[in-house]
Amino acid sequence: MKLKRRTGKPARVEMLPLIDVVFLLLVFFIYAMLSMSIHRGLHLDLPLSSQSELNREPAPIQLSVASGSDGPLLTIDREPVPLEELAARLRRIVTEAGNAEDGGAAPPLLLFADKGLPYQQLFQVLDELKKGGISNISLQARME
User: Fold this and answer.
1) Which residues lie across from 110 on neighbouring strands?
2) Contact at 8 Å (CB) between 72 and 121?
3) Is residue 51 part of a domain?
4) Cβ atoms < 10 Å from Cβ of 105
5) 118-144 per-position pLDDT tens digit
6) CB of 124 within 8 A of CB of 83?
7) Could you give the number of structural domains in the chain?
8) Is the overall model pTM greater than 0.70, yes or no?
9) In terms of residue numbers, what domain contains 105?
10) Closest Cα to residue 81, out of 118, 122, 120, 125?
């Protein structure tokens, strides 16, 4: 009995599954790298040294801004502050932190702005922050 030989198409490598595998490996290595970056060190009793320096970074300033009828309502670390006094208060905080004499940067500022705050009022606050010598500003948001 004579059998017919099938002459089929040559085998080919499909690229879509290969791309899926590469992206899966990429995601795996990104997550692995992020989990290794968190320092999970042991608690150690460090030796004493007269020449060691402490990390004396200033605590961040927390500024909350809410919308008011005649302008923004401001609180620095839960203490109400009028907009006109904001720059002077921030300059005082910077000098109390000791950054003005050291030539270091001003302490960081965490800005909590109300969702309904008008754009113009936010820019009034940002202008006062610049006058107060604050340049390291972090806008805070709530996670969805």
Assistant:
1) 62, 138
2) yes
3) no
4) 14
5) 888 889 999 999 998 888 898 888 776
6) yes
7) 1
8) no
9) 66-139
10) 125
